[in-house]
Amino acid sequence: MITVEKNNESKHIVVYRKIHQSLIEKLENQGYKVTQFEPINSNNIQEFYEAIKTANGIIGSVFKIDENVLSKAPFLECVSAISVGYDNYNLAVLNDRKIPLMHTPNVLNDSMADIMMGLMISVARKLVYCDKRTRNGEWNGALDKSWFGLEVHHKKVGIIGMGRIGEVLAKRCRMGFDMEVAYYSRSRHLKVEELYDAKHQDLDTILSTSDFICVILPGSPETKHFFSFDQFSKMKNSAIFINAGRGMTVDEIALINALETGKIAGAGLDVFEKEPLNKDSKLLTLDNIVLLPHIGTSTIETQHLMSECAVNNLISALNGNLEKNCVNASIIKK
Predict the structure, then answer these.
(1) How many helices (H) and strands (E) does the chain have?
(2) pLDDT higher than 70, residue 277
(3) pLDDT tens digits for range 139-170
């Protein structure tokens, strides 16, 4: 233990997002020198570039860690993302340099499942739409059918991308709302099938028979515009489409067309092709969609858990332990 502390004294950690002071102190108590940016902006970007010249590890999120940034960090030994996704990191360069990329799966599963469940209910029951009309003074007595929504309970949900978050969502749908659960995935998940009576089905079957389509796909060249005109054309007219995975998986022009023409009943999005959402996006003009600013993990509790996980990941990686939460462990160990 003493040896590790002595080695750590010369290591420099750059944190490029605000995290709780107790986590900064945890790094300092391990013997690391810590430089923090809260967050990176046009005023401090040059200071950040200067800081990473001597950095052995970096922790943060949102800011793009591309080839240009990595080229300025010759002593880098570990990158720790405060996120489960790693779209903002140049994995090819990290692999070439044998630099571990750590991430924070599992700690956000419940929060993500909650936001998807919330979108399902909000869209189906027209909560945002009815709130807007109520505030506008349109509630003047008995409600006509334009205020009516659709039920959520006892409906069929099709989960596209059955991973950790999908499993937790399936639990909420089946155990909390008595829903029929189906999922599309490259491999079967027997635990989910056994616990929640979920059915592994082909994509076309799920699209044509589900009342809710919930997308939790990762971002990759293979999943870009996974949902476009053809997929929306196969859905029920009463279907509700939910995406909280990656914005790039949905062709927004095709989605807008489906919503405008009544091909589907509604949608709920927490992610978009371009973020922040353009202020002139046609999505903003539609009443049958609920839009959120990528807040799937934006709770005080989950953000702290993710930051804590990222700090622990960094400490483990710098001590040579890549057994948990390392994206490219198989490459590093070669």
Answers:
(1) 15, 12
(2) yes
(3) 999 999 999 999 999 999 999 999 999 999 99
Q: Is-catalytic flag, 194? A: no
Helix (H, G, I), strand (E, B) or coil at 226: coil
> What residues does 266 pair with on adjacent strands?
240
Structure tokens at 133: 């009309």
% of the chain residues with pLDDT over 90: 94
End-to-end CA gap in the chain: 27
CA atoms of 293 and 296, how far apart (whole Å): 9
Is residue 103 flagged as an active site residue?
no
**pTM greater than 0.85 (yes/no):** yes
**CB atoms inside a 10 Å sphere around CB 295:** 12
Q: For 37-91, what is each residue's pLDDT tens digit? A: 988 999 999 999 999 999 999 999 999 999 999 999 999 999 999 999 898 999 9
Closest Cα partner for 13 from 78, 70, 58, 71? 58
Cis peptide before 293 (omega within 30 of 0): no
- Cβ-in-10-Å burial (0-12, 13-18, 19+) of 199 comes to middle
| Per annotation, catalytic residue among 246, 252, 273, 308 | 246
Residue 199 tokens read as: 């059915």
What is the C-alpha separation between 221 and 236, in angstroms, rounded?
27
Give the pLDDT of residue 3.
25
Q: What is the SS3 assignment for 208?
A: helix
Look up residue 252 and give its two tokens.
């927004």
- Measuring CA to CA, which residue among 5, 30, 78, 120 is closest to residue 318? 78
Q: What is the pLDDT of residues 208-240, one digit of tens each?
A: 999 999 999 999 999 999 999 999 999 999 999
Query: To the nearest whole number, what is the mean pLDDT of the chain?
Result: 95
- 246 is annotated as an active-site residue: yes
- pLDDT of 263 reads 98
- Cis peptide preceding 276, ω within 30 of 0: yes
The Cα diameter of the chain in Å comes to 75
Residue 130 CB burial class (10 angstroms; 0-12, 13-18, ≥19): middle
